[in-house]
Write a structure and sequence with these properties.
alpha/beta; Dna Ligase, domain 1; D-amino Acid Aminotransferase, Chain A, domain 1; Glucose Oxidase, domain 1; 4 domains; 7-stranded mixed beta barrel
């Protein structure tokens, strides 16, 4: 490498301490190139053109004062005036050109890069502002990047345009909004060997959940082709979550996978064309599969954890990272092409919990990926083109096909944002997080279904799916100050069935999950009767078979679809609360509910009273469902053994007899789930009077008992809990019910077994929670919105009892 350069620094010469010289992007690349390549992380080589070079450009041409005059007195709220001044400023820099002495150094450095990678090598030319990636400002996407640059002429032109891009409209507005002096921010340029992801795939990684701040996951997005489409939100990418703690232990904890539509990909332009890149359609077969393999997902996650650990050690505190990756289509190798500290969730206050709740419901107009966890309402303003941005009014809801950094001066005025395209790492998502407003991205046809002036409510408070409702709906927020919150002696757990809510619900003070139901996961994520996947030949309806094929087409064995989807749904919940216990109840559909699943009619019976029929434990060892239960067991084994989530406790529902308990445990053993092995605990739902009367005997087979107060009340009082006529007679506070609940708690204690209750009663009736505490129950499992209220009641009772 050439010595005595004034304006060139190679990645191998740069560290994170060089931000003032080469900007955040280049400083980070240099830091990783120097420190992490020995740890197996691949970083393409390259060099930085320093910020001194930028100032040299301005001074050599004598244009600094003209630039200052151009921006003097600017009002960034006047979008038209901002555009006019931005254009003038960029023209001033472009006309200044690149001085000969600087160009000679750039040419020489490019020649050296060609010696390493081959003649006329292709490079990315990327802007790196010298105030970039500070803790309170990312500067990400404010300046330009140019891909597939070859030869001197294209390189010089790209460098000139990069310097000028310090004055894009969005960059000017960003600096004004964040209090940066335009003339105390310089621009460095990174020239890096291209990774041929145009022939493979690329994307973005966060070492934190972007919506909730849950920091035990690596969140990866990816699509085919060059990464600009993912960043700009032009495609709906694949999404993957990997659980960090057990990844570090050597497990394979891919806890969530969501396939994106990936309709287009960005590839190199043709031959000598001045079109450096272009978008082409992705083949239908490629859209239906993930853009990277499980092994590649895990490798990227390991890269991300290594990078996060390095930066955290450097800073002396936890530093979540925002990382770009690319796969080379020629070699199949994975590369990291950028990394910077995450600047939204990691800076939020952790001692105050704000939760949004929708109080009304209405027709859903469109859905997409939720960004944030807030709710907003207002009037729609569809912006089909950047030219119409000046018409946007503060407080409206911005609806567009996609957004780019040029839209940012207007986005800050929006109450919320909705886009047709994009995933959770696209431009619209990133900016809405920084602004603290909710967004729904990847909504597909929002610009068609939403019209100017329509009143709508946008909710991102219902998990991964963001919903846009018709009309202005009422909602409220609850704020909890977590500072100085006292801990109860009785464990306060939660009931949860929706994996999409797990990360956000884990932020509520809790002792784990007392009841996680499989039913929501099966109906929402799988939709098909498990036996129809084991025996598809028994499904005689062509349309039903088509639906099953549509869902399972990429799986060679259709049963694997059930196992993978169920395992990931459960793992998301279990990981969110790790290492606290998570009690997952095996399936407890009634026969009529099973029949409503796709293909279910071929494997179920008509029962006059399904509530007391073929349900729970009785199904697991019966030939009519034994193979379906085996799939459930296989999924649970995958969560515990492959993903390493051993805080998963399994629970058996509606176990009528001691003989049934023995048969179910034997069936589980046949499928690799052995009670006591690898710490496996098995609980029983205590919801039938026989469970309480024979609790000493059942204690020989189960490690704990969770009282299901709904069914136990029904069967104690002989009241159909679904009967409107008898609604007033169904009351968990009835003395008979309280007495049998007390017997269950005392019986569990007598046998040194865990006792808990996971019914609705404590959530609805604080006095019932008080009764349970006085009886000495170990845990109470509540609906999430009742946790704080009941916890305070429990604390009060415990103090009265002198606990």
């Amino acid at each position: 490498m050439t010595d005595n350069n004034r304006y060139i620094r190679w990645f191998g010469e740069i560290s994170i301490d060089d931000v003032p010289t080469v900007g955040g992007k280049n400083a980070s690349l240099g830091e990783m190139y120097r420190e992490l390549t020995d740890k197996g992380i691949r970083i393409p080589n390259g060099f930085a053109i320093t910020a001194d070079a930028y100032w040299h450009v301005l001074k050599s041409a004598g244009v600094l004062e003209e630039l200052k005059k151009t921006l003097d007195g600017l009002d960034t709220d006047d979008v038209t005036n901002l555009s006019k001044r931005g254009t003038k400023a960029r023209d001033v820099v472009l006309d200044a050109g690149i001085p000969d002495d600087l160009w000679e150094e750039i040419k020489t450095a490019y020649d050296e890069l060609c010696e390493q990678y081959g003649e006329d090598t292709d490079v990315a030319v990327r802007s790196s502002a010298t105030a970039e990636d500070l803790p309170n400002a990312s500067f990400a996407g404010q300046q330009e990047t140019y891909l597939n640059i070859h030869g001197y002429h294209s390189l010089k032109d790209a460098c000139n345009r990069c310097f000028a891009s310090l004055f894009t409209d969005r960059a000017i507005s960003y600096r004004v909004n964040n209090g940066f002096d335009h003339f105390k921010v310089g621009l460095s340029i990174g020239v890096m060997k291209m990774v041929r992801s145009d022939m493979a795939s690329s994307g973005v990684i966060f070492t934190i959940d972007t919506e909730t701040g849950f920091d035990n996951v690596v969140f990866i997005t990816g699509a085919y082709g060059l990464g600009e489409n993912v960043v700009q939100g032009l495609v709906n990418p694949d999404e993957f979550y990997v659980f960090k703690p057990t990844l570090k232990e050597g497990h394979r904890p891919i806890i969530k996978k969501k396939r994106g539509s990936k309709e287009i990909k960005m590839i190199y332009g043709r031959g000598d064309s001045r079109v450096l890149t272009r978008n082409v359609e992705v083949a239908e077969s490629d859209r239906k599969r993930y853009c990277i393999t499980d092994d590649e997902i895990l490798q990227l996650a390991e890269y991300a954890v290594t990078i996060e650990d390095h930066y955290s050690a450097k800073k002396g505190k936890h530093v979540p990272m925002d990382i770009e990756w690319a796969k080379d289509g020629n070699t199949g190798e994975l590369f990291i092409v950028q990394a910077r500290p995450e600047t939204v969730q990691s800076l939020k206050k952790k001692d105050v919990l704000e939760t949004y709740y929708l109080d009304q419901t209405a027709d859903v107009i469109v859905t997409g990926r939720s960004v944030g966890s807030k709710i907003a309402s207002g009037k729609v303003h569809v912006i089909p083109d950047v030219s119409e941005l000046p018409d946007f009014r503060p407080g409206e809801i911005l609806v567009a096909d996609t957004t780019t950094p040029d839209w940012e001066p207007v986005m800050k005025r929006a109450a919320a944002i909705i886009t047709n395209k994009g995933g959770r790492t696209c431009h619209a998502a990133i900016v809405s997080r920084e602004l603290g407003i909710p967004a729904v991205v990847g909504a597909g046809d929002a610009t068609e279904k939403l019209r100017d002036g329509m009143e709508i409510t946008l909710s991102c408070a219902e998990g991964d799916v963001g919903r846009v409702y018709e009309g202005i709906l009422e909602y409220h927020t609850e704020t909890v100050d977590l500072k100085g919150l006292e801990k109860t002696k009785t464990e306060i757990m939660m009931n949860l069935g929706n994996p999409e809510e797990a990360f956000s619900m884990s932020m509520i003070p809790n002792d784990g999950i007392g009841l996680a139901r499989l039913e929501f996961i099966i109906t929402s994520y799988i939709k098909v009767h498990p036996m129809a996947l084991v025996h598809p030949e028994k499904v005689k309806d062509a349309e039903v078979s088509r639906q099953i094929e549509e869902l399972t087409g990429r799986y060679g064995n259709k049963a694997d679809f059930f196992v993978e989807r169920l395992a990931q749904g459960v793992a998301t919940i279990v990981a969110a609360f790790h290492p606290k216990p998570v009690v997952v109840r095996m399936s407890d559909f009634k026969s009529n509910e099973y029949a409503s699943l796709i293909g279910g009619e071929y494997f179920e019976f008509d029962e006059s009273n399904p509530m007391l029929g073929f349900r729970g434990a009785s199904r697991y060892y019966d030939n009519h469902y034994r193979e379906g239960f085996a799939l459930e067991c296989k999924a649970m084994k995958k969560v515990r053994d492959e993903m390493g989530l051993t805080n998963l406790i399994l629970m058996i529902p509606f176990c009528r007899r001691i003989e049934e308990a023995r048969k179910v445990l034997d069936e589980m053993k046949k499928n690799g789930l052995v009670r006591g092995e690898n710490g496996l605990q098995v609980y029983m739902m205590t919801e039938i009077p026989s469970n309480v009367l024979l609790i000493d005997e059942f204690s020989q087979y189960f490690d704990g008992f969770s009282i299901g107060s709904n069914d136990l009340t029904q069967l104690t009082l002989g009241v159909d809990r679904d009967s409107e006529m008898l609604a007033s007679a169904f009351d968990e506070r009835d003395e008979a019910v309280k007495r049998i609940v007390s017997m269950a708690i005392q019986g569990a204690r007598r046998n040194n077994r865990h006792s808990g209750l996971c019914g609705q009663a404590p959530s609805d009736f604080p006095e019932f929670a008080e009764f349970l505490v006085k009886e000495g129950i170990d845990s109470i499992s509540l609906n999430p919105d009742s946790v704080m209220k009941i916890a305070l009641k429990v604390l009060e009772v415990e103090k009265e009892m002198g606990k």
